[in-house]
Amino acid sequence: MNITSLRGPRRIAVAAVAVTAAVLGGAGVGWAAATSTAQPAIKTITPRSEKDVTNIDVLRQQLRNYYGDPLGTGQFAATSNYAREASKVASEGVRYLSHHRAHGHVTKAIVLDVDDTTLATWNYEVFSNWAYNPATNADYVNGQKFPAVPGMVATVRTAEREGYAIFYLTGRPTSQEQATLGNLTADGVGVDAGFPKPTTLRGGEDGLFTKPDVSAYPAYLKKACAADPDGKCTTIHYKAATRAHIESLGYDIVANFGDQYSDLKGGYADQTFKLPNPNYYLP
Ligand SMILES: [Mg+2]
């Protein structure tokens, strides 16, 4: 298994940033010419007091309550605040799509992220106690263990009926593509969430975009991510460049659905829809 390719950005605690120290006044000033420092990937506040944050064990219980799973069984409730909030976004999305009229000769399309946008990973968060581990996560992915995010199957099915092309865009690695497809649609293994099959693009590409190893990047990713560390796409660059690629083939991405801001930044969508996910943050 290729550890480095697994939903990586989520778990990178720090991003190395090279900093060149200014050399002041020529020789003899006591700084090295260059040094490097590490910066956290997540920019946030520094609490002045413990009272400014929620104790992490208490927070975990709040999340269990939010998912309607106070005892932490790993199954969220259909009546939970999570399900209500996700369903609300799903119905806002479908209402927007239904009112949208296609412009010109492009084909209208939607783009959907997978984890916690179409498939809910609550069971894995509970199992892992919110500590992502690529090996155990792969068990859940390859076992196709994730149920649908509430409301989203109906939304995507309606979109398909209304003539939208359906594209899925995930940071999961290419090695997990078949399991992802099986979990999303129906293959008789694990959960069959019942989403429509991805649309095959003009030119024959399949419409479930997983993240390739750098060595296998298509030209549009190589170009878009050339300045990223080791040429490896950040989530935002990977997703935005893929949406740009889709639109370059004659599609108009009317709506982009994601649970992370990094799913939604970078343009190439007329409207974005943010699904709830208080469990992790992927810069
Ligand atoms: Mg996601």
Automatic annotation (TrEMBL):
<keyword id="KW-0732">Signal</keyword>
<dbReference type="Pfam" id="PF03767">
    <property type="entry name" value="Acid_phosphat_B"/>
</dbReference>
<dbReference type="InterPro" id="IPR023214">
    <property type="entry name" value="HAD_sf"/>
</dbReference>
<dbReference type="InterPro" id="IPR036412">
    <property type="entry name" value="HAD-like_sf"/>
</dbReference>
<protein>
    <submittedName>
        <fullName>HAD family acid phosphatase</fullName>
    </submittedName>
</protein>
<dbReference type="InterPro" id="IPR005519">
    <property type="entry name" value="Acid_phosphat_B-like"/>
</dbReference>
